Amino acid sequence: MHGKGKAVDRSSLRPIRSNAAYKAAIAEVDRLWDAKPGTPEHDRLEVLGILVDAYEAERWPIDPPDPIEAVKFHMEQTGRTQTDLARLLGSASRASEVLRRKRRMTIEMAWQLHREWGIPADSLLQPYKLAA
Question: How far apart, in whole angstroms, are the C-alpha atoms of residue 62 and residue 107?
C-alpha cells in the first residue's frame, strides 16, 4: 500500500492508443498530481505524463510557427524591440524588411536569432512566404 491507501498497479502502464485510454490516463494523472517526489506514485505520474504527451503529439500535432511569427512572438514575450533586432541583424532597414516579409531571413540571421535569443532553430528554418 502506498500514498492514499491504494496499491500502485505498475503492470497497467501501456502506450495510449485510444481516446478512452487517454481519458483514463488523464484521470490517473489528476489523481496522482500531488504525489511526493521519490515515491512510486510520483514515478507513475512521470511515466503517465510521458505517455500522455506522446499521444497528444501524435493525435494533435502542432506545427512550429513560421519564422517571422516566431521572431515577432519572441519579441513580444521578451520585450525586445525592432531596434534590438536591428542590432542583431546589422541594420534597421534589414530588420524592417525581414519583419515585413520584404526580405527573406538568411541562414546566418536564423543562426544569430537562435544563438543570441534562444528561438528554436526548427521555427526559424521553416519555409515561409514573402509579401507580394
Answer: 23
Do the Cβ atoms of 88 and 117 come closer than 8 Å? yes
User: pTM of the predicted model, to two decimals?
Assistant: 0.57
Supply the pLDDT for residue 62.
Answer: 82
110-130 per-position pLDDT tens digit? 999 999 999 999 899 989 999
Please state which of the four CATH numbers 1.10.10, 3.30.1490, 1.10.260, 2.30.30 is assigned to the domain occupying 67-124. Answer: 1.10.260
Cα–Cα distance between 8 and 44 in angstroms, integer? 8
Tell whether the model's pLDDT for residue 1 goes beyond 70. no
* Rounded Cα gap, residues 101 and 20, in angstroms: 44
What digits encode the pLDDT tens for the residues 28-37? 999 999 999 9
Whole-Å CA distances, 52 to 9, 23, 88, 124: 18, 9, 39, 27
| Residue position matching grid coordinates 536591428 | 86
**Amino acid type, 73:** F
Cβ neighbors of 34 (< 8 A, separation 6 or more) are none
